[in-house]
Amino acid sequence: MTICELQEKVLQLKKEKDFCILAHAYQGQEILEVADYTGDSYGLSVQASRDAHRNVLMCGVRFMAETCKVLSPDKRVLLANPLAGCPMAEQLDLETLEALKEKYPGYAAVAYINTTSELKTACDVCVTSSSAVKICRALPADKILFIPDQQLGRYVAAQVPEKQFAFYSGGCPRHVVVRAHDVERARAAHPEALLLVHPECRPEVVSQADYVGSTTGIMDFAMKSERDSFLIGTENSIVEHLQFACPDKAFYPLSVNLSCMNMKVTTLMDVYRALSGRGGEEIALPQPVLDGAGRCIRRMIELGG
Ligand code: 13P
Ligand code: SF4
Q: Region 32-57: what's the mean pLDDT?
């Protein structure tokens, strides 16, 4: 079977079975082409809460499918490949969070969306890379415990100097591999290119960027820019999507190591198998988790706009 034939089958099944397909921007091009909505974590969360289909298939990682279930508890939500977890979302458990909250009394607990739903039950609000600065500014608290991604946390803290921040020592194992010398090498090879990076990168990389933003932010910036050459400092699938979107512009990976195997474990065949009832995993969460994580995620949408 060819990719096109399989895509045809997926589109047909999706319609027959009343499925909405949500695909994070780190999925392969062949998956994005069959999705109803693609984008960053914030965009997918908002779409998940508005969509009218009875069933949702998440092509992304587990916390994204859980977010979708929390926002639409009456829908059937499937994760296309059950092995697709985000390692950062597993870095902090409830017990460690409780200990951190004791260490930092009076701090609002702000969770990056890349956390489990269980962890979100003990947090005041969650944020994504595209909404973190706005939400931390808007939050009626002057002390913020930002978990688990210290790189994103420090980036946000620099934009919100009027507040006091404390951090956990977590981070994205993919983005932190990029170092200042990768920027030097890439700039030397492509001196004309603008550097666009995700705030999950280290400060030594973020501080050299021409633009810092979420996956959707990076794509929008590159598509709208009058410049025609870009170094992409986030997962390398964004390079490919931009090459398809803007064939006359040039896109280069900041590092070949910027590849997320967790995101890449999902294949188009997984999508087909999940829709045909022979694969995927249905997300089920206990009621207290639905309630607690729901409060945290809905507050993000209220404050994030
Ligand atoms: P975005 O919200 O920018 O899509 O980021 C999600 C993610 O997992 C980045 O590694
Ligand atoms: Fe998680 Fe990093 Fe992969 Fe994003 S890129 S899903 S934060 S491991």
A: 89
